[in-house]
Structures are given as C-alpha cells and as structure tokens.
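Regression test attached.
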Amino acid sequence: MIGLHDLFLAADRQKGKLLTDTFPELHLVAELPVDAIVERISSLRAGDAVELINELDDDQAFAVFSLLSHDQAVRLLDQPEIQRAPEIIEHLAPGLSSSLLDEMSADRATDVFQELDEPLRNLLFPLLATETKVALKKLMGYAPDTAGSLMTIEFIAVPANWTVAQTLSHIRQVERSRETVYAIYVTDPKTKVLQRVVSLRRLIMSHPDELILSVGRDEKPVAISPLTDTEQVSRLFRKHDLLAVPVVDESGHMIGIVTVDDVLDAMTEDMSEDTYKFGGMEALDKPYMQISFLQMLKKRGGWLGILFLSEMLTASAMQHFEVELEKAIVLTLFIPLIMSSGGNSGSQATSLLIRALALQDVRLKDWWRVALRELPTGIALGSFLGFIGVVRIVTWQYLGFYDYGEYWYLIAATIGLALICIVTFGSVVGSMLPFILQRIGFDPASASAPFVATLVDVTGLVIYFSVALLVLTGTIL
Amino acid sequence: MIGLHDLFLAADRQKGKLLTDTFPELHLVAELPVDAIVERISSLRAGDAVELINELDDDQAFAVFSLLSHDQAVRLLDQPEIQRAPEIIEHLAPGLSSSLLDEMSADRATDVFQELDEPLRNLLFPLLATETKVALKKLMGYAPDTAGSLMTIEFIAVPANWTVAQTLSHIRQVERSRETVYAIYVTDPKTKVLQRVVSLRRLIMSHPDELILSVGRDEKPVAISPLTDTEQVSRLFRKHDLLAVPVVDESGHMIGIVTVDDVLDAMTEDMSEDTYKFGGMEALDKPYMQISFLQMLKKRGGWLGILFLSEMLTASAMQHFEVELEKAIVLTLFIPLIMSSGGNSGSQATSLLIRALALQDVRLKDWWRVALRELPTGIALGSFLGFIGVVRIVTWQYLGFYDYGEYWYLIAATIGLALICIVTFGSVVGSMLPFILQRIGFDPASASAPFVATLVDVTGLVIYFSVALLVLTGTIL
C-alpha cells in the first residue's frame, strides 16, 4: 500500500506528536504549470484538491478553474474549505457559473451565492434552473447560526406504505454527487408528515418485503426547526450520536436535513468566534493571512477603543484619590499587582462560566448557586495571593531591599486585605458576567478577558484606596 | 405526530432563539419512584435516558441501575455523556459489572475501566471475557488526546476477493448493539493490509456479483496511526467530510476505527480545555457544579499564583523608578490605562494566532510574516488609542477638570507616545507567544490572556517610564 506508506514517511515527529499529512507533495504540485495541475486534480481526493487550489495565487486558481471539467469544478466548489469561491465564480462566464451552481449541492450553492456581489447575483439568478431558484429562495431566508443556514434539501423521503425493496430500488435510482444518504426518512403517505427515520444499515438487514415503517426503530425521531440555533444543533448531535437530523416545519413536514459534516464545520467556526470574542475582538471571517490591513484594524480597533474609553475611568478614579497618592507613594507601587490579580481571577471565572453555560452544565436560573460557589473560592484564592503579597513585603523590608517606611506592617496589611477583596470581587463579577450577557440576549462568550479585566480594574482601584483609607487613616493617610 | 408537536410546545422562545428540548418532562420523571423511572427508561432514547440518570442523586442512580435489565444498562453505559459510570460499576456486584463491561463497546469499556480505582480494576479484570481482556489491553495503552484513545476495535473488514453479496450477507450476520457500520474496510486476502474503504451506499448500489474491491472509489483511503493527536484527527474529518477513519499500524493493518461521534465529543472537550487555558487556569475534568472546593482551588490557584509572582516584578520596576514617580505623580494616574491597553492588544493578538495555528492558516515557519503584519497593526492601533488619550488630556486640561501642571502638553505627548509603543509591543509579543509555545512543544492555547497581560505589564512599565524620561527630562523629571 504505497499510499499508506507515504503517509508514514510524511509523518513529522515533533516532540512526540505525529503529524499526518494526506497530501505531502502539495507545495511541489502548486509550482507546476496550470495544465499539469488540472490533470493532477482529478486523481486527488476532494479535500486535498481544495487545499491545492487554496495554495495557488489568484491567476493560477482562476486559470485552473477555467480548464477543469464541469464535474471536477462542481466537486471542488462543493467543499466548504475552498477559499475563493465567489471570486472564482466571478471570473467565469455567467452561463458556466450558473450551470455550476445548478449542479452543486443546494446548501453549498446557497452559501456561495450569498457571498457574491449584488450585481452578479442579479445577473446569475435568472440563468439558474428552476429547481435551483426554488432551493436558493428557501435556504437564503435563514439567518446564519441557525439550522436553516446549515441544512441541505437533498434527502431521501419515502412513504410509509412502501416496502424495503421499493425503498432500495428508489435509492439506487436517485443519483447524488454527495454521499448524503445517511438515513431514509419515512413520511405519512397522505399528510407527508415525518414518522420515522431508518438507517441504511437497518435497511440492509431487513427482508425486502417488510414495510419500511416497521423497519425503523419504534421511536419518535429527533427533529429540529430551521430556526434552532447551531449551538443547540451541535448539542443534539452529540447527545444522540446523530449523523443527520431532519429539519421540519411546524406541522412536522420535512424541509431539509442537517448533516454531521456541516455540524463539524459549524462547531469549528463557533470555536474560532468564541476565541476571538474571549480575546476581546470581533470574529474574523477569513483566514489570518488573508485579511486586509484595514479590515484587521476594524476588527480590533473597535473593542480596543471601547475598552480604552472604559479604562479611562481608572485615571479619573486615581485623580479622585490623588491626595492619598501623594501622601503614600508607596501605595502606587502595588497598583499593577493588585489590579492584575483582580483581572486574572475574573478571567478565570469568566472562562469557567462561559463553558458551563455553553455545555448546559449550569442554566440561567443557577446564577445564585454559582455566586455562592465563587464567593468562598474568591476569598480563598485572594487569601492565598494576599499571603504571598504580605510575605513579599515583609521579606523585602527585613532583607533591606526596600524600605516601606515606619508603618510598613500596615502597608502589608493593606495589600493583603485589598487582594482578598479584589480577587473575591473579580471572581464573583467574572462569573456573573456571562449570565448577565445571556439574560439580555447576547452570546455569553462576549464576556472577554479584557472586558472583565477592565470592569474589575476600575472598581478594583476604588476598593484598593478604600481599604488603604481604612487601614492607614491616622498614620500615613 | 404527537412527539414532534410536543417538541414545538416545549420550544422556548427567548429573544428570537428557539430552544428545542427532546425530553422536556425530565425533571418530572426524576421525581418519580425508582421503579417508575426504570420502566420509563426503556422507552427513552439513549441520550435522554442518560440525561435522566445524570439528574438523579447517587442513591437513586445506583438503585435504578440495579433494577435495569442487562441490555438497558449496557445501552446507557455505552453513552459517553453518562456521568457516574465508575461509581455505578463500583456499586454493582463484580459478576454483573464484568458482564456489563463485556457487552459494552470496546472503547467505552476501556474509558470506564480506566476510571476505576486500581483495587477494583484488579478485581474485575480476571472476571472479564477473553475478548474483552484483549481489547482492553490494546486500547488502554494509548495516551489521551491520541487517536488510539478515541478508537473502537469493532469494525467490519472483508477480504478483497469477496463479492458484494458475500459482504452484505456478512454484515447481516454480524450483530452489533451500536450502529458502527459506517463503511466496509477491504483488506488484501493474504497480507490483510487495508486496500479500500467502501461506503454502505455504494454497496447497496452495486451488483451482487461484483468484486467488493472494484466497488470502492479508486482512491487510497485516508488512514491514521493510533498516535495521531486528536486535533489532527478532527482536522482530517473536517477536510475530507469523513464519518469514520481507519486506524492502521506501520504495515497498514487495521487496528481500529475512529468514528465521527467520538470526534464531535473530542472537539467539544478540546474547546473546553482551550477556553480554560486561555482564561488562565487548568482544564476542568468535570462539570462546573460537580467540582469540589479543593479541586477548584487547585485548578485556579496554580496559575493565579504563578502570574502573581511574575507580576510582582511590576512592583520592583516601579520601585526602580520611584524617584521619577515622586517628581511626577501625574504619571501614576495613567499607569492602569497604559498597561491595560498593552494587555488588551496582546490578548487580541494571542487569540488570533492561537486560532490561526490551530486551523493551520499559518505554520510555525510563518512567524516572521506574522510579526511583519503585527508591527504596523500595533502601530496603527497604538496611534488610535494614543490619539484618544491625548485628546482626553487636552480636553480635561482645557475644560478645567484637572490641572496637569505647567507641562501638560508634554504629559500628553508622553502618554501618546507610550501608548503607541506599548500597544505595538503588546501586539507583537502577543502574536509571537503561541509560536514560541508551539516551538518548545507546548499547546499554543496555553498562551492565556492573563499570561500575555502579565508579560506586557512588566515590560510596559519599563517602556512607559523610559518614554517619560525621554520626553520629560529637563522639565518635570
């Protein structure tokens, strides 16, 4: 098996991890002339061919596509990973583009069509086959992040009074370019409402004369509405180990199906979005290296500016306490330390609760239970840090690294107490933020680490100086 | 279709999102007496039954399991989502436990067995069927986060010289409790090396007398080694839209398969781990509400302490500049603002590059390209924030909100310049951190937001005061 052996030769051992690459010679092929590339593509798996196309520069990619056979072009455009689909469509003759869209699977055609500029959409739509127009109209109506935006309308549904033999014969006749036959959907012969789902395996195991209805598990099928959000769809797939889920309207008629490969892609996208949000920026819609300078500034500048404006309150807070600051400069030495501890504990708590809410380990109504857990946790962690802080001050004072003045022990007490308060505050605020966001309708993952840190910074300063006033009034203050 | 209608009645419309729950009456059922629960379970989908079990308290759960039929117990234990599997096994008689493990799918039996305490493992192992012992020995050797830890050894492989009819007949005979027949693996009759993969659909569409070898796509199958890490496995599934992937040894013999449902679960776990890491803590191995107080402190205290110790360098840095601080208290007012801007831009850059590396949009060797992009981006963003900062100071001075002193315009210049430097520094450092971590063998996702912020804080202070010395020497300093 040369292929498999290549796989192992290509394996790159990096500190105990094996990287398996199914197309190790990609970069060599990308250097070949365009007709050599075109010839090579028909022997590649779709996933590898798409990686190759993505590697080419614009001119090469468009040239390759103009030379590809119709079937090959459709095969590649049907892959969600292909990167310049709208640009490729733009560079082909309208007649060719529209026939490609006709042959693509409905959900991919919808995704690509939606990314085209409006003039091109208006130009191409009339050229499409009626079937395609109908499909596009149906699917384009659904918002992103809903089941409707993930679904395909190519599924196999048979009436409940058919036999297994009739069903198998139907499957054989129905030609599909994608392997979308995960299951057979059994509908009521009169009302066409979904009754059962039958897996291919059960079909094979059954007697040809059996009624298809009796073959399926005697179980209400898991079904979703087209408005179900993609996170809920992912959860259902995981909970019931599904390969595909039927999408039904309010009466129970099938509209389409969502397949597990689209769920995998949706989950990856959600993961990226959540990471960007948690890092304090807007989600990217393109790979990192393909974003223009201006787009990058827009994605990052927005949140950076908002956080900056909010953080300016710290300057105002410190101006408010400037008298105390002048009296006890030593207090300023610990400002970064105390504030960052609040921000860090807040960051931890927020990440915990973002996941707990996403996985439904906690629900909105559990907020008070969470607060009751975070309170002692924050106090314990704050005491831990406070202890280290006090030890640090005492050590520096005794070893003579620094002189904190006559009341150095009060300074130590201030720092210790402030740390306990701020870490507790940070933990509680950080844990409550995802709940608040979800309650007012936002994605809890918008509770970014920088956002929490900013919240805690401003209040943390007030806490710090209040503790200082409490401990040091009469002595230093 | 009462079931589907229930689904919609149970739908909870929250600000335009539909939540579909496949088992809305769960909490009512959990209140029923144990025998009522047992009876109910046989009519529930496995995913819903497991949710129910998870909702019960320990005594209820153990009681239910002692009353369940053998098949039902296996059905539930086979679900990865069931939460107290080791405890349940502990509370059953060893003879019963071992026979349950025998009937479970091999990968689930391995997972559960590995979670048992050692005495119990030693007790149960001799009681297992030989087949189970062999499977456990094979699968337990694989580290978590590798394909071997995800795979199951229950797959269907047939020799290449069989016909379609022989294959179908074989499938019918092989009884499986799980629907693991995603594809048929075709092996060389003599060497038993994997040759082709044939989907069920192609099987159905083919003539019974055709050779199984000619039915499969003429394509080298995608295969992985058991040491392939789970992130790479997920990537392969997404790239090639796979439902299952064969796991082979170095000679190309099949060891097992990894199925897409396990990949979905692995991806969710990876997502959680990455979120916790990015938030600056260790990954949790249990749902939020189930972690003990002490475990929680351990998971969070570690990183919190390390970051605190690192951040103490800021106090040292400020002590070093204390002369300047005393001369220009006004500089302290902006310390939180400037440092947080560095931390925020670093956080953004880090989240960007963590994802870019995970999705392989950039590779390790592209680090310099990334640095070349982050430099101008940081300068632009820093100038943006610097502009706002300067405007703020100028406005406050002119409107009389605060008097920054005789050289207020130099203060403004200091702040502006410092912001440019720190945001640039933060962006570049934040973007390089995931590369460095990956280079030395760590998961790039360990580059947490708090970690980046701490890095930037300490150096940021030095930058700030250096800029201040540059601009203000001779006047205030």
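Expected vs. actual: identical. Confidence is low (pLDDT under 50) at residues 1-20 of chain A.
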